[in-house]
C-alpha cells in the first residue's frame, strides 16, 4: 500500500518553524499492526495517540490493526501489508539475523513488561526441574522470555518441559496444575496472582534483566526511505503519547481508557500501568547497549545462531532523532 508523503506545506513546515503544529489539510492513512489483541497495557501508546488526537495533529489517519502475534506483525511489516509493526524486539533481532530488508525504528516499550509466576511449591530450581511450564511457541518472544524466566534460577529450556498453548490458556493450565510456571504480561500476571491461591512472582523481568530490550517498532526499509516525513510524524505522535502517559496527572485517565481498550478489570490495568511506569517502559528510546545485549542474549538462549546481529543491522533511529527534535520544538506539555 502507498501512503502519501506529507509536503512542506503541511505539518512538517509548521514544526520547522517551531510552532505547535496543525493537522495537514488531508490526513495520510497508514496501517499499524499491533501484536496483541486486545492490547495489553504495554501497547497503550498508539491508542493514546489516537484518543488524544496526536496522530491527527501530525496529519495522520492511523488504522490500528490487530495481529495474531509478534511474528505475524514482523512478517506483515516485511511484506508491506502494514506500514509499521509493533512486536517484541526479539522479532527485530531475528529479522536482522535473517537479513530481512527491515529495521526497528523506535521502541514502544523499552523494558520488559513480563513477570514469571509459579505455583506454590515450584519456585526453586530443584522444584521446577523436569516440570511442565507454559509457552506459546518454541521461538520468538515466547521462547526467549521463558528462557529468561528460568535463567535466574540456573535453569534452561532443556531442564523443563515446555508445553505449547495459547496465552489465554495459561491461567486455566496453571489453575489445573498442568503447568507449574509461565511468563505473563504484567496484566495477566495480576489476574493469575489474584485468582489462583498461593501463586508467586519469582521474577519481575525488567529488574533481573534490565538490559533486555522489549518492544520494537519495525518498518520496511524501502517504505521509510520513500516516506520519511510520514515516519517522522508517526513517531512524533508516539513520543507525545509517551510524554502524556508518563505525566502522573494523567495516570487515572490512562487507566480508565485502558480498561475500555483492553477489556480487563480496572484493578488489572491499574496494576499493569503502575508496573510499566515504575519500569520506565513507556518510551520510544532505543539504547545501543540494550539492543546489543538482547541480540547476544538471543544467541545465548538459542533463538538465533552466532554471530549476533549488530545495532546498525537491527536498528535505524534517524527518523526517531528527527521526531524527537520536532516534539522538543513544540515544548509539549500534554
Search tags:
334 residues, three-stranded antiparallel β-sheet, 17 helices, five-stranded mixed β-sheet, disordered N terminus, alpha/beta, D-Maltodextrin-Binding Protein, domain 2, 2 domains
Describe the fold and architecture.
There is one protein chain. The protein is built from 17 helices and ten strands. It is an alpha/beta fold and 334 residues long. The protein folds into two domains: 205 residues, D-Maltodextrin-Binding Protein, domain 2, CATH 3.40.190.10; 95 residues, D-Maltodextrin-Binding Protein, domain 2, CATH 3.40.190.10. Strands 2-1-3-10-4 form a five-stranded mixed β-sheet, sandwiched between helices. The protein has a three-stranded antiparallel β-sheet with strand order 8-5-9, sandwiched between helices. Strands 6-7 form a two-stranded parallel ribbon. Helix 7 links the parallel strand 6 and strand 7. The longest helix has 19 residues. The chain is globular, with a radius of gyration of 20 Å. 55% of the residues are buried. The N terminus is likely disordered.
Amino acid at each position: 500500500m502507498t501512503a502519501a508523503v506529507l509536503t512542506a506545506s503541511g505539518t512538517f513546515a509548521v514544526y520547522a518553524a517551531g510552532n505547535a503544529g496543525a493537522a495537514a489539510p488531508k490526513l495520510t492513512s497508514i496501517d499499524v499492526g499491533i501484536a496483541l489483541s486486545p492490547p495489553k497495557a504495554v501497547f497503550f501508546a498508539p491508542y493514546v495517540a489516537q484518543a488524544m488526537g496526536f496522530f491527527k495533529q501530525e496529519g495522520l489517519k492511523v488504522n490500528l490493526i490487530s495481529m495474531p502475534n509478534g511474528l505475524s506483525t514482523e512478517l506483515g511489516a516485511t511484506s508491506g501489508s502494514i506500514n509499521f509493526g509493533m512486536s517484541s524486539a526479539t522479532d527485530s533481532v531475528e529479522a536482522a539475523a535473517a537479513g530481512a530488508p527491515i529495521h526497528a525504528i523506535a521502541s514502544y516499550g523499552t523494558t520488559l513488561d513480563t513477570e514469571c509466576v509459579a505455583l506454590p511449591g515450584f519456585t526453586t530450581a530443584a522444584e521446577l526441574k523436569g516440570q511442565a511450564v507454559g509457552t506459546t511457541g518454541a521461538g520468538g518472544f515466547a521462547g526467549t522470555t521463558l528462557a529468561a524466566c528460568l535463567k535466574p534460577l540456573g535453569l534452561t529450556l532443556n531442564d523443563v518441559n515446555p508445553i505449547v498453548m495459547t496465552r489465554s490458556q495459561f491461567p486455566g493450565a496453571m489453575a489445573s496444575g498442568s503447568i507449574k510456571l509461565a511468563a505473563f504480561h504484567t496484566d495477566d500476571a495480576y489476574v493469575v496472582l489474584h485468582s489462583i491461591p498461593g501463586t508467586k512472582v519469582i521474577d519481575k523481568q525488567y529488574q533481573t534483566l534490565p538490559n533486555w530490550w522489549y518492544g520494537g517498532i519495525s518498518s520496511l526499509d524501502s517504505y521509510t526511505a520513500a516516506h520519511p516525513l510520514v515516519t517522522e510524524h508517526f513517531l512524533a505522535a508516539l513520543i507525545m503519547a509517551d510524554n502524556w502517559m508518563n505525566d502522573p496527572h494523567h495516570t487515572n485517565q490512562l487507566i480508565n481508557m485502558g480498561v475500555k481498550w483492553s477489556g480487563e478489570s480496572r484493578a488489572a490495568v491499574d496494576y499493569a500501568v503502575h508496573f510499566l511506569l515504575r519500569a520506565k517502559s513507556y518510551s520510544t528510546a532505543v539504547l545501543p547497549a540494550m539492543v546489543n545485549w538482547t541480540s547476544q542474549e538471543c544467541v545465548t538462549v538459542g533463538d538465533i545462531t552466532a554471530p549476533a546481529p549488530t545495532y546498525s543491522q537491527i536498528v535505524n533511529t534517524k527518523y526517531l532523532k528527527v521526531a524527537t527534535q520536532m516534539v522538543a520544538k513544540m515544548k509539549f506539555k500534554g
